[in-house]
Amino acid sequence: MKAPWSTQLAAIILCVALGGPAMAQEFKAGDLTIARPSSRPTPPGAKVGVGYVSIRNDGTEADRLVGGSAAVAGRFEIHSSSVEDGVARMRRVEDGIVIEPGATVELVSRGTHAMLLDLKEPIVRGQSFDGTLVFERAGTVPVRFTVEGFGGAAPASAHEGHKP
């Protein structure tokens, strides 16, 4: 027995509503697949934010993420977080991040991530903003960052002590 069209329509609407921000967003650039560019909300007046993304290299040659940009920020830098002798430290990654053939690199909270510096406006949950990722081989790739809730990741405000 086939469901009435109203039931089918309701199921489609429910899937779209529930899958909205959580749906995987992918961008292609040559052999690279860039998935789930995201950020975290910031409090009013914050000067720094964060960017997260997954980058998969399906090619036969390595590429390197060397920079990027975000419409909400004056500067974009790649940073690495670590804990040394019980003290959390963050440093700028000067030479970029290599994505080897067949590998996936994750920019995540408490690891390697993008720092969005000199924010022009607060980053607001449920909104999104344009940006780019810049690679040695694939070039400049436009992406759209979605702003998600705090979940298991550290909020951008955890970086308030960071000195740009």
Verbal overview:
The protein has 164 residues and is mainly β. Helix content is 9%, strand content 49%. Strands 1, 2, 3, 4, 5, 6, 7, 8, 9, 10 and 11 form an eleven-stranded mixed sheet that branches. A hairpin with an 8-residue loop joins β2 and β3. The N and C termini lie far apart (63 Å).
Set down the secondary structure blueprint.
Layout: H1 5-19, E1 26-29, E2 32-39, E3 48-57, E4 63-70, E5 73-84, E6 87-92, E7 97-99, E8 104-107, E9 112-119, E10 128-135, E11 139-147
Parallel strand pairs: 2-11
Antiparallel strand pairs: 1-2, 2-3, 3-8, 3-9, 4-7, 4-10, 5-6, 5-9, 10-11
Poorly predicted runs of 5 or more residues = 5-23, 152-164
Number of strands: 11
Report the sheet-strand fraction: over 45%
SS content category: mainly beta
Helix proportion: under 10%
Query: N- to C-terminal separation?
Result: 63 Å
Q: Mean pLDDT, rounded to whole units?
A: 82
Key attributes of the depicted protein:
single chain, 164 residues, mainly beta, eleven-stranded mixed beta sheet, 11 strands
Please sum up the structure shown.
The chain is built from one helix and eleven strands, in the order αβββββββββββ. With 164 residues, the chain is mostly beta strands.
